[in-house]
Predict the 3D structure of the following.
Amino acid sequence: MSSSRAVDTRRTQRRVAFATLIGTTVEWYDYFIYATAAGLVFAQLFFGPAGAQIGLLLAFASVGISFLFRPLGAFLAGHYGDKIGRKAMLVLTLLLMGLSTMLIGLLPTYATAGVLAPIMLLILRILQGISAGGEWGGAVLMAVEHAPANKRGRAGSFPQLGVPLGLLLASGVTALMTGVIAPGDAFLEWGWRIPFLLSFVLIGVGYFVRRAVEESPVFLEIAEMKLQPKVPILELFRKHWRLVILAALVFVGNNAVGYMATGGFIPSYATNPDGIVGLGKTPVLLAMTFAAAMWLIFTALAGGMADKIGRKRTYIIGYTVMALTVFPLFLLINTGELWALYLALLLLTFGLGLTYGPQAAWYSEIFPASVRFSGVSISYALGAILGGAFSPLIAQWLLQATGTSLAISGYLLLTTLIGLAAVIMLKDRSGIDLSITNQHEQEVGATIFDKRKPAAASTR
């Protein structure tokens, strides 16, 4: 490769990394703003007539309902992403998320619109779920398929960093509103709307950045050879349904534990004036901002680790750490000391980062090129449903049913062990050729149970 071409390639890779990072940050800022508001004010504003306890359960259920529609987004984006390209799906999902989020900030509450208010809220949350289900697959494939084989872990960590960055931004903006701009009743009256309306500006930035990136070289190759499958979803499930299930289960532990924080449960639990912790909203939101920063650092670290020691080993270390920290997590929070909350969140985010940073590269390397968008998107969406969709709701129900946070820790340990078991059953395929011309090797050997050998070289 000539020096000028090498420079152009590196420039393209940096541009793609930046575009996927910015785009996923905007997407997940929108997503987490909802979860944060659900834990703090939606029970009162949209589900108030149900009472404080049931209203909080309904608010957390509204967080989870969007996960049920992630597979629809994954199916749609996967189908068209494998047929017309990764880039188009990135732009469309970003616009859908931004519009839905901005409209939430304009909704009337139950006090002014009655039952219509929570219905409209749920519809917009569902649209957020469809967008989130389709966005992730396109972002990670753009990052990983543009990267050299020995740096896919690091490249794939860039879209992953958008999740903690989105949480960091969402927590920081909400803390600014509750602590400075609209403290006390003002936040309940109008301040909660501002973070949703800010999405308009962020979406504009993300849109122009993503429009400027080049299409994935793997998809360009597929399109040039006219090898797009007619119905990618059918081909995926006909040949690789076991792989989809295992890949989804890999995500279960990370998502269930992660949504204790990102799904709004820990902020709600720590600030509940009738609970045993009773911390203030703004200090807890600042602690969540710290958690997002730590999660960001550990996710970036895990991307580099995945290139050095492999995706599988990085995951095993992460899930082992997570299994050891789910009980200390709530024991520390229950002390009611702010320093203990920070320590609990630090422990939580270490395991989260190590089981999130390598995910993009590993998912991309276990699915064949022709159905890769569908495979990574659907596996991610199903894992999110099984793991994080209703973990805040389950946690709140367990707390109300048992009166102790130990039940929540037991639930999180179970999901962590499920994720670890799935990790053990998958093979590490670091560095495998992702090109459509290597489809014969990509089709087999992704799990420890698959002893098949690659067929003669073929593109299908």
The mean pLDDT is 86. The CA atoms of residues 395 and 408 lie 5 Å apart. Residues 1-443 form a domain with the Growth Hormone; Chain: A; fold (CATH 1.20.1250.20).
